[in-house]
């Protein structure tokens, strides 16, 4: 069995998260999550565009992470800020061009489901939530 390593970059409104794992001997092993505050959505409600400063901050963080991820498949998943911004598609096109990452925008429903799963994964009960 071949070891397989993957990484996911969560492009959020306020921060970027890097989650990386390796599938080895039938089990996943996850590295510590990395988090960087970039404020991509700052001023989005007023301007309809991603924050220029947030874009610069995001690309600086992604550049650093990309150096560490050479040879590892990366999927970047953008959430509400990129989905709602007039320049969101252009931003993701630039991410693809600069880093060669697979990029996509999560729908609102998918974003909610992923947030729920993340909460359940981090919960001590581990595989779901108890009914009251």
UniProtKB/TrEMBL annotation:
Pfam family for this entry, one: Ppx-GppA
Boundaries of every Ppx/GppA phosphatase N-terminal domain copy: 35-116
PANTHER family membership: EXOPOLYPHOSPHATASE, RETROGRADE REGULATION PROTEIN 2
Family affiliation: Belongs to the GppA/Ppx family.
Name the UniProt record assigns to this protein: Ppx/GppA phosphatase N-terminal domain-containing protein
Record organism: Anaeroglobus geminatus F0357
